[in-house]
Amino acid sequence: MTAPEIADDLAAVAAQFGAALRQAGLPVGPGRSERFAAAVALVRPPNRRDLFSCALATLVSSKDHADILRAVFTEVFGPLEQEGLPAGLPGPSPGPTGPPELQAQQAESADGTKSRLDIISSAAENSDDEEPDSEDQQILRPYLGSAIERLAGTDFAELSDAELAQLAAAMRRITLAVPNRRSRRRDTRRGGRRIDVRSTLRQARRTGGHAFRLIGEEPAERPRRLVVLCDISGSMEPYARAMIQLLYCAAGGASAEVFSFATRLTRLTTALARTTPAAAIARAAQAAPDWHGGTRLGEALKEFNDRYGRRGMARGAVVLIISDGWDTGDPEIVRREMRRLSLVAFRIVWMNPRTKSASYEPLAGGMAAAWPYCDAVVSGHTLEAVSHLAAALADPVRRRAMVAAFTT
Fold first, then answer.
1. pLDDT tens across 189-203, in order?
2. Are 120 and 206 in contact, with CB atoms under 8 Å apart?
3. pLDDT tens-digit series, residues 4-50
4. Where along the chain do its domains lie?
5. Phi, psi of 230 (to 5 degrees)
6. Which residues pair with 188 in a beta bridge?
7. Is 351 left (phi over 0), alpha (psi -120 to 50) or beta?
């Protein structure tokens, strides 16, 4: 078997194993299957027990999931007790179980053909011509990341409700801050550019009318308002759950005005106040009747501009739009309303989880219409990627010149 064929077999086995785990109820997506294949290629497991350790480190994140993984692993690869077998010797295989595509391969393994363990072992041995030294093996092979570390790099769409709840503590350590703005009020401080006459005279009354010290003042700074428009349509529902929990848990950030939209615009600020992360998501879903609905991005932006933006909520604010840009309406409405919003907002940050791919292009009608009016576009698809979102929100630079270039 050639090297390319071996690599293809390893990818196919990892994908089929992931499909069997999904049928068993585990949230194993393409990302976790890819990490499992990479771990196998790095560790080169010589037996079933080491192969199971690779699966345990990359495919699950809780004890309950580990029990299901062990059961499915036994059905697919054979019992773990046969750990002493050499890598090239196929062990006894159970009867055909699991998905139809796996039953045929299990039957082939029982007839004496190459088993999954053989394919994975041979693929791992040929994946790299250079053998790592024993010291590297001792460091890499026993390594198992914590549950939080594994979940932090997992796409929000692949997280279950229980796994998302585990990230609440980590989200509390994140700061979603926004730039400051100059207020009309003034703060008294020593060495200010202007003299605060009223405070200076008030202090002089204590010394018989003699002003021994001049009190200065400078314009005060206040954090800008953060306005969040979150898409809760069917394609964005997993990311909407994660971002609503993040907005509730993020520490040190400005209090945000939160709106949801799918087929209509719903204000969620009151529903998210004074509650727990899980209850916040439940109350948000109850308050928004169009949860899991279609997407009418242009109409939602128009309603926000007419009802709230005109009253000053978006004036000088940092606006965060969470959406994949898929719109069932007219893209021209999106373009017109994004231009209206850009004229009053300080910054517009768009969080699109589809941009995690390096080959992404804004081809969807809504995203293509909105792209020129965005100051920053980030993915924010994992907890690790949220750092880019936090940096984009805290950026004090405005990109109005870019907007003008696209609209002329």
1. 666 677 777 777 777
2. no
3. 343 447 888 888 888 888 888 888 888 788 888 888 888 888 888 88
4. 3-144, 182-222, 226-407
5. -110, 125
6. 217
7. beta
* 163/32 Cα distance (integer angstroms): 14
Residue 271 has pLDDT above 90, yes or no: no
Return the closest-CA partner of residue 265 out of 310, 312, 226, 233.
Answer: 233
Per-residue burial over 207-221, b = 16 or more CB atoms within 10 Å of its CB, e = otherwise: eeeeeeeebbbeeee
Neighbours of 222 (CB within 10 A): 12
| Dist CA 319 CA 392 (whole Å) | 11
Identify whether the C-beta of residue 224 lies closer than 8 Å to the C-beta of residue 316. yes
Alpha carbons 103 and 75: distance in angstroms, whole number: 10
Neighbours of 359 (CB within 10 A): 4
- Cα(230)–Cα(90) distance, rounded to whole angstroms? 52
Written as six digits, the tokens of 67 are 């029990």
SS (H, E, C) 119-179: HHHHHHHHCCCCCCCHHHHHHHCCCCCCHHHHHHCCCHHHCCHHHHHHCHHHHCCCCCCCC
Residue type, 338: M
Q: How many whole angstroms from its chain centre is CA 403?
A: 27
For residue 96 the two structure tokens come to: 């055909």
- Beta partners for 375? none
Write down the CATH superfamily of domain 226-407: von Willebrand factor, type A domain (3.40.50.410)
